[in-house]
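Hey,

The postdoc asked me to send both predictions to you directly instead of through the lab channel. I've kept everything plain text so nothing gets mangled by the mail client. Protein one:
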Amino acid sequence: MYKLSAMGGIGSSLSASRIFLYEVVGLRQNSATEGMNPSIRRSGSVFFAVPYDRMNDMMRRITRMGGKIVSIQPFNAVDSSSGSAVSGAAAQTKQPQKESNSMTQAKAKADIPVNIYRPNAPFVGKCLSNEELVDKGGIGTVRHLIFDISGGDLRYLEGQSIGIIPPGVDKNGKPEKLRLYSIASTRHGDRVDDKTVSLCVRQLEYKHPETGETVYGVCSTYLCNLEVGADVKITGPTGKEMLLPEDEGTKIVMMATGTGIAPFRAYLWRMFKDAEKAANPDYQFKGLAWLIFGIPMTANILYKQELEELQQKYPDNFRLTYAISREQQNPQGGRMYIQDRVAEHAAELWNLFYTDEKSHAYICGLKGMEDGIDAALSAEAAKHGVDWKEFQRSLKKAGRWHVETY
């Protein structure tokens, strides 16, 4: 264990800085470490308490010393009388300070509605609107649907989902089971009257691997063809993984493919839409929202006009980055996918997640993008001597890494 003073005056800045505890292995004795007291051991973990404003310097120093960072966590257990770092065992006996931006803490006192309506007793709403989102020349069909929920008690938060029960029976003659869809509207609904809920639905269509026959998704086809005025069976809401932190100063990085934009539309409308801001005087977003959106063609950019209007109106708070696979190329000359955009901005994203405890990552859409995102950030983390998987686990534990893929 190292005393804080061994790191060049860290002890004197404890009261003025946010402190993080680094667990490091593999440090070797060399010219950069031989003057440290106590001396470097050849095995085992070493712990450093590092102020927020010196994290980048410390990463470089650890790398020069041949070390590898295996974990980083907020340093809440400090012996103020001696100015020394508390060991892991001792730290467990102290009461940790609560972080105001923690996802768990942020929603601990909030009313999170869950399963107000269940499959055996769904709410029956009505379709108020069913509009195409894909422009002419685009691929497939994606619909924005608005349902009237004024006749019931359905409440929800941004980032939650609802279930839809399509009519009819399945191939076994049993009633169709519900399908979950991410909610695309804020808690107040698109009309900001607390009477609607919206979905963003792509009609599932694929070729049967054996027969070559075109197969259409049961529920998605039902919704995409739903007529205005038709009844619809709704369950839920469900989900706590994708909820937004209540802190207005957070930095939110959203990575989406296709209809994975749904929860992010809800976030952005809550953050920036004038009517929403008027309806939420206790929530006025002042942080950064960055959407990295993967789509096949420009015609498939869902909610394009509104997204770009928000970007123009709030250039300091909203950043919009497209990955258009069939129209843009990555540096290798292949198609530009979302993971290529993440790799392109990896240094900036890494610095954001690593140094800013108010940063959150949200991933929604096709499951296949996760590996590419991890690979891009893992390569960047390695440059700083950090194991990405270990660091990612610390982000998840802190409630800062949120994933909803399918």
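Protein two:
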Amino acid sequence: MARGGITVYLPRDLETRIRRIARDQHRSESSVVAEAVKARFERGDGGAKEESADRRLNRVDIRLDKAIGESLIIKEILLLFVRVWLEHNPPIDEEMEESAAASAEARFERFLDFVTQALGPGKSLGVASALAGNDRNVDLTAGEVSA
């Protein structure tokens, strides 16, 4: 089989490695380079695809770590809110407990309705989106949601 010639300039460290491999295997430097190039072409584009997939997986991992971190922050904020709310609200008088329980249940049902509607496609649970909607009124001072 006739061979053609190509001149290739390599970095010094790679050139040194090729010379060492050729010397250890008692081969020519050209045959080592030719074998490496042939192996790369036979492997096809799989190597590039694997590298690309690895980069995408790394980006997904980074985004997942960020999302997990943000969810942990949201959890801490919610727990802090509950703690502050419990510390700063006085206990309910015994004669008002029954009406307070009924009011709490009604408010909780309205809250669940609001969450159910806000979880629909293209909607958000954010206060800004609730304030922008015409079908809902949010009283931020009283913490109530009404239709």
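Summary for protein two, as requested: Strands lie at 137-139, 144-146.

Thanks,
C.
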